[in-house]
Amino acid sequence: MDTIKESGANIEEPASALLIQPVPSGAFALAGAAVALLLVAWLVMYFFTFLPRGPVG
Amino acid sequence: MAVDEISAVQNERRWALAMGGVAAVMLAAIVWAGLGLHMNPPSNIETVDPNTLHVAGEFAENNLGTHVDSAGKITTRIVTTQFAFVPECVVVPQDMQVTFRLASPDVIHGLIVVGTNVNTMVVPGFVSQVHTVFDKPGDLLMPCHEFCGLGHGQMVAHVRVVPIADFRPDGDGRVTCDN
Amino acid sequence: MTINNRLILAHLWTAFAAFGVAILLGLWQMWVRSPLAAPLSTPDNYYLSVTAHGSAMAYVLTTFFIMGFGYFVAESALKQALPAPRLAWAGFVLGIVGTVLVVATVLSGQASVMFTFYPPLSASPLFYIGLVLVVVGSWIWCALMIVAMTRWKKANPGTPVPLAMYATVANAILWLWTTVGVAAELLFVVIPAAFGWTQTVDVGLTRTLFSWTLHAIVYFWLIPAYIAFYTMAPQAAGGRLFSDLMARGSFILFLLCGLPVGLHHLFMDPEHSSGFKTVQMMLTVLVAVPTLLTVFTVTASMEIGGRLRGGKGLLGWIGALPWERPMVLATGLSFFMLWFGGFGGLINMSYGMNAMVHNTSWVSAHFHMIFGGSVVIMYFAIAYHIWPNLTGRLAPSLVLQRAQLWLWAIGMMVMSLPWHWLGLSGQVRRVAQFDYADPSISWWAPWMIMSVVGGGMLVISAGMFIWNLVSFHFERTGAAKPGPVEYARALHPGVPVPAALNGFVLWNAFVLVLMAAAYTYPIAQFFILKPPQAVVHRVDRTP
Which of B70, C238, C248, C447 could form a disulfide with C501 if both were Cys (CB 3.0 to 4.6 A apart)? Predict the structure, then answer.
């Protein structure tokens, strides 16, 4: 059964199991893609909305 | 420090450097817009007494609206008040530098000229000033965008952008929506 | 197990009760703004409602939730009794009295000035006094959090403070700094004017003092969500916290960079120079750093969980995560909404670019995505996570919990995403009704109806949330007892923590320097310049 209690359960595995992947490549890929998209979206706003709306100050 | 934690921190640092790069790209673009293209927030520390501004001076009623001075400088003066812009329609020429000067005799207001970067708060005690150039003719909506009381939603004005040929100041240098 | 469960539950139920009422008002507000005919739709009612919605969500839900959760962390993470629970109850009572004053003044139409006040508009003095009492109650909480940590450090020399508690104290200290601005605004300017002791106010000064509070307050709201990201989500996912040191660093960065950035709320104001606006814009860029670090660290922590559960390849660990657990699901949904909320925020903070969106629906979209979305969904997940402990009963139904979280995230996006393009096309905030007959805005109509639908989904989700919590209390206590809440262990336990990352003295000194640099002149200029003052405009009675 799926319970909150189970979510607290720890898998007691040897320390080496934790180091299958010394570099968190998945996190780099996922978070990197998200931030790259963020920058692209920001640049789209900058070039295609902000600049065309004209000088101001 | 354990070797493993050092490797974790190294990974974090790699990530942080990449994030610094992202931030640097955005900052560079913002600074370029500000310094190179003169696209900045309206910052103009200039005071005016909200209680007397309607009596005399540039915000007296007969000075409001668009005015072209002898040097050809175009200034549009508007008073934002509960719950109207005075005047409610202003005319500006296309493709020329225009300066908006705004003041409030009562509470905080704000405005945005829809579809442009013209956006400022109007804070009683200060003159808000925005320089801009409108590149397309048309009637643009200019709503009050800051809560100023129960009538806030009714507070809407228009900016009429006209081709230079149709922008004809009268003998005093004034241009209004009526003529 | 926690001892002061009644204290914690009293806080959390107060928070969620306010939330339950405020969300109904929110739906009604969307209805009024839409082309559909809403009942009772007058400007008076609308602004009363917006003030109540904002005050309840931004002050009552947050403050009581954060206090209750802080008491929970202090007992469960430190495994020691809370110091002076009677004082904690005193803080709670102060907060309740304050909330009652706020509710009474707002509902009687004496305080329709929004939760951001906007002097020279002036409400009944009792409205502001009510808010001051809520804040004073929270200061007691701050003191108790600091005392709890200090005691624990004395009793456990050489052991680092558990991360959840370290972060909670970071938030308490942040909140003490944060409230200085609004306290000064209320005590020295707004309340004297509300009582009629002064007839005019320096509007620029009040805006500047409020800006001191206005940004850091959102980090106060957000830090509990981050505590869950770092200490609860990896545990629920069967993973490990990727780096305990970096987590501490992130919370310190929030404390340092969350404060000296409030002028970015005043980019479009005339009363500040481009110089100080630029300085605080730069500092605002820095405050994105702890969030971006968190995104990475938490993702890496989850990745460990996914890989331990057999996930393979670059992204296979994602599917291997136990998404059936509400804490894991909520974290995923929260991160998803964080992308949109973060994107909106990046545009807001980008100096000149703020002109495109300032005071439009874009801004409402931003803070609904990031606060209503990313943060509040974690409040739900935290409640689900700790309620077994607080009630001694297992969750009646995880299916309903998951459904509630999904509905919340989808509803928030259905409601708030359209506000981005509506805002860009000139839809301003805080307007009750639009003239949809105007051909230039008639295309808004379907999007506004979509927002009403999204709002309806949120109301249903909120109802399910309350039901899910209430049903705990009625669940029979069976043979199976919930275990204590365990916080995520670090991937590399036993790493020595430098003293600087185990206390706050050094960081307080840094905050002082930063705040002095960022705010001394912007505040002092009003005493040098002495701008003409504005006459007080009362909203609580006709003059």
Answer: C248
- Partner B contacted by C120 (CB < 8 A): yes
C132 by DSSP, 3-state: which? helix
Domains and CATH numbers, chain C: 5-474+504-536 (1.20.210.10)
Please give the structure tokens belonging to residue C268: 């479009």
CB contact under 8 A, C384 and A4: yes
**B19 to chain A, minimum CA–CA distance in Å?**
8
d(CA C63, CA C142): 11
Do the chains contact at B133 and A55, CB–CB below 8 Å? Answer: yes
The complex's ipTM works out to: 0.96
Question: pLDDT digit of tens for each residue in chain C (543 aa)?
Answer: 688 999 999 999 999 999 999 999 999 999 999 999 999 999 999 999 999 999 999 999 999 999 999 999 999 999 999 999 999 999 999 999 999 999 999 999 999 999 999 999 999 999 999 999 999 999 999 999 999 999 999 999 989 999 999 999 999 999 999 999 999 999 999 999 999 999 999 999 999 999 999 999 999 999 999 999 999 999 999 999 999 999 999 999 999 999 999 999 999 999 999 999 999 999 999 888 899 999 999 999 999 999 999 999 999 999 999 999 999 999 999 999 999 999 999 999 999 999 999 999 999 999 999 999 999 999 999 999 999 999 999 998 999 999 999 999 999 999 999 999 999 999 999 999 999 999 999 999 999 999 999 999 999 999 999 999 999 998 887 777 888 899 999 988 888 899 999 999 999 999 999 999 999 999 999 999 999 999 999 998 754
Chains with at least 3 CB pairs less than 8 angstroms from chain C:
A, B
Looking at the partner chain, which of B5, B126, B141 has a beta carbon nearest the beta carbon of C426? B141
Report the C-alpha gap between C531 and A14 in whole angstroms.
Answer: 69
DSSP β-ladder status, B74-81 and B97-103: parallel
Could you tell me whether strands B74-81 and B138-143 are parallel, antiparallel, or unpaired per DSSP bridges? Answer: unpaired
Q: Which amino acid is at C484?
A: P
Pair C315, C246: CB distance under 8 Å = no
Note whether A50 contacts B117, CB cutoff 8 Å: yes
